[in-house]
Every structure is written in C-alpha cells, then in structure tokens.
C-alpha cells in the first residue's frame, strides 16, 4: 500500500526532475525527463451525455470528426470542440487527474514491465485533505512552479484516488527502477508518458486508450494546435 517517503528516498526520487526542460518551455520535455527511448500522449476521453444516469465515452478523434476538425498528436480540446456542430451534450475531458478509463488499462500495461514499485507525487495545492490510507510524508520542490507531496507505493496505486470526496490521482508517477515516467499536470487534459519503445508500442496498440506518439519538443499549451483553427 502507500507509504511515506524517507529523506534518502526523497534524494533518490529527485534524480529525474533535473533531466527535464525548464517549466516555461511548455513542451513535453518540461514534463518528462529527457532520458527515455519513446514518448506518448494519452488523451482523456470526453463523455457524451444521454441522460443523467447514462454517458458514453467519446474519443478526441470522434469529436474532431463530428466537428469537421482533424485529429492529430498535437490537437487541443478547444481547437477541435465546436458545440454548435454537436447534436448531443459533451462533458469535456478531465483535467489534472488520470481518469479511470485511462488509468486501468495503463496500469495493466505497466504491471507487465517488471518493477511494480513506484514514486507518486501529488500537487500540494489540493490541500491536505487526504484519505485515511494516505500517510504524512515529505514534500519535493521541483523548482518548476510545482511542489508535491511524495509517496512510495505499488503501481496499483496509479488509479487510486488520494483526496477525500474526490477522484484525484497522483499527478506524477514514475518507476523506482527508472524505466517509465508519467505526468498529468494539474492544467492538462491529457497524460504524457516516457518509457521504452516496447512500452510505447504497447500503448499505441491498445484498443482501450487513445494514444499518439509524442516528441520532446512537442508543445503542450492551448495554442500548440497549428492544424485546427480555434472556433469563434
């Protein structure tokens, strides 16, 4: 289960934050250490609302097609979503947490990579209203306008919520053996991952995830979609 981090583990855990580009770069390299073979972007699904008790997942590619936009690896939600062209209500993708539709298949893939022990970092701005199983721990300041409470646990904690009355997952999760790294920044509605070529190929082949390859220089801000013009 989840456990507190010691000072020695804190020192060891911080190895990769120095391997990232400056926060102001606003690219994949500012989120993921620049040490991995391959990188990918996982899109959080939107949900089509039929009734209050009935929703269906919609991929970004679905929404782009319906709205007359083009799906691609750098697309941004505001650039592909045009409510005037939809005949149904859509809840936009979740920001700042990894939704269960993503975390469950992702966890299955990561479990098969070997070492299941990982570090989990949760943004301190959410407060300290943690669930009963979340112990007190040390904080890590990444020097990138983000400070995190840091924990140690199995990869099964990937889709376990941390906060009371919330589905908030950890924002940054990385393998103890340094084989993969996941970032879902507090302001993003997609999750980025770095790892081996085999891991990323597995993600791209998954029928349960919407994934595009990513490059370290890919921009991550709202204006980074140069293909789709923002709707009026």
Helix content: 10-25%
The quaternary organization reads as single chain
Q: How many β-strand runs?
A: 12
Q: Overall pLDDT, averaged?
A: 90
Q: Give start-end ranges of low-pLDDT stretches.
A: none
Largest sheet: 9 strands, antiparallel
- Quickly count the helices: 5
Strand pairing plus helix content: what structural class? alpha+beta
Radius of gyration: 18 Å
Description:
The chain has 232 residues and is of the alpha+beta class. The protein is built from five helices and twelve strands. The strands form two sheets. Strands 1, 2, 6, 7, 8, 9, 10, 11 and 12 form a nine-stranded antiparallel beta sheet that branches. The longest helix has 12 residues. The protein is globular. The termini are far apart.
What's the short story on this structure?
By secondary structure, the protein is of the alpha+beta class. It has five helices and twelve strands. A hairpin with a 2-residue loop joins strand 3 and strand 4.
What are the salient characteristics of this protein?
232 residues, alpha+beta, nine-stranded antiparallel beta sheet, three-stranded antiparallel beta sheet, 12 strands, 17% helix, 25% strand, globular
């Amino acid at each position: 289960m989840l456990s507190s981090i010691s000072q020695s583990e804190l020192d060891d855990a911080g190895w990769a934050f120095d391997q990232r580009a400056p926060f102001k770069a606003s690219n994949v390299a500012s989120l993921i250490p620049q040490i991995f073979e391959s990188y990918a972007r996982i899109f959080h699904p939107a949900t089509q609302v039929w009734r209050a008790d009935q929703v269906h997942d919609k991929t970004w590619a679905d929404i782009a097609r319906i709205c007359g936009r083009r799906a691609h690896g750098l697309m941004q939600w505001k650039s592909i979503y045009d409510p005037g062209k939809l005949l149904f209500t859509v809840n936009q993708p979740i920001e700042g947490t990894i939704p269960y539709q993503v975390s469950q298949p992702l966890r299955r893939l990561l479990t098969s990579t070997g070492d299941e022990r990982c570090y989990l970092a949760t943004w301190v701005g959410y407060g300290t209203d943690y669930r009963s199983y979340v112990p007190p721990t040390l904080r890590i300041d990444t020097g990138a306008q983000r400070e995190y409470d840091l924990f140690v646990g199995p990869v099964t904690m990937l889709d376990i919520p941390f906060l009371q009355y919330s589905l908030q997952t950890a924002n940054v999760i990385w393998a103890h053996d340094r084989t993969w790294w996941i970032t879902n920044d507090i302001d993003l509605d997609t999750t980025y991952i770095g790892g081996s070529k085999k891991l990323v190929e597995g993600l791209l082949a998954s029928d349960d995830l919407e994934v595009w390859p990513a490059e370290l220089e890919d921009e991550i801000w709202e204006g980074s979609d140069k293909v789709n013009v923002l709707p009026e």
